[in-house]
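Lecture 7 notes. Example A: sequence first, then its structure tokens.
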Amino acid sequence: MRLGWGADSPVFRQMFTGLFIPGGTHEQANYFNELQRRTTSPECAARYFDVAGDIDVSDLLAKVTVPTLVMHARGDLMVPFEAGRQLATGIPGAHFIALPGQNHLFLQDEPASDRFFEEIRLFLGH
């Protein structure tokens, strides 16, 4: 990651793009590849992935006392669907919504995007 992230060629970053937005168009993938390169240094990207993979808050979930909405795309390639379900199960009274699609980041014109915002409106009572 420290060597490939900042390279002029997007080949290395494309691996992450494929996980985050596998349903993206070629143009969206190119944009996301470039966004990754411009917004995060190779060192920062490597450190983030080292640390993020080790975070485990499962022992704190039962302490959450506020209304909680957890949504997860069924085919998410970045984070397994079951992880979202387990997160919601660990929070007392949490409401879990399974969203259609496989993108970790919602794209504007996909069904999961509309459903995501509709569920937030319902959850907030608006």
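Example B, a different protein, same format:
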Amino acid sequence: MKQIRDEIREATIQAAQAAGAGNTPASVQRMIKDLTEPKMNWREILRQQIQSTIKNDYTFMRPSRKAWHMNAILPGTNYDETIDICCSIDMSGSITDDMGKDFISEVKGIMEEYKDYKIKLWCFDTKVYNEADFDGYNDDIMGYELMGGGGTDFMCNWTYMKEHDINPKKFIMFTDGYPWDSWGDPDYCDTVFIIHGNDSIVPPFGTHAYYEFKD
């Protein structure tokens, strides 16, 4: 899909260049802008990343229809809707309390999307605070206490995970994207950065999306 998208984009741009700037219809110019500056809803990106952590198995309780024409019975897919992820919330001095609460509400949105989940949550600035576990039996996330207010050290998240033997299937960080030094360890786990505000910030690894604070 990426290859096809790249080929379409390149062909469209080349055609527009051949026609000349003054001969390119406005609608085509807008299409080129969309192709060269694609925007995707950050929640959709996050949903895709979380969905990729869910393990699927096979069961004869739901036989596959693909084998019916062969008079054979093959197992169908049994989708496991349990997610198991870690989330960290940047609570350094550049993050307001309202922004932190907004991040919390988005984690709650993740919880509401799946019937079963295991979410390990913490805050950080230059160190990690208030680790908490949430699942289908403990879902009072809106009572979670936000802590922090100092500088910003992204690496403290990876140091904490290594020291406490935490190996997430997916690590999701809500941040404004201003580490004082390293962005973290690119080889430790799959990471998703949800960046508030500045869409010119591009993390050096992992998946990222840009988030607009709800006024």
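Note on Example B: The beta strands are 56-59, 76-79, 82-90, 116-124, 128-135, 171-175, 191-196, 207-211. The first helix runs from residue 2 to 19.
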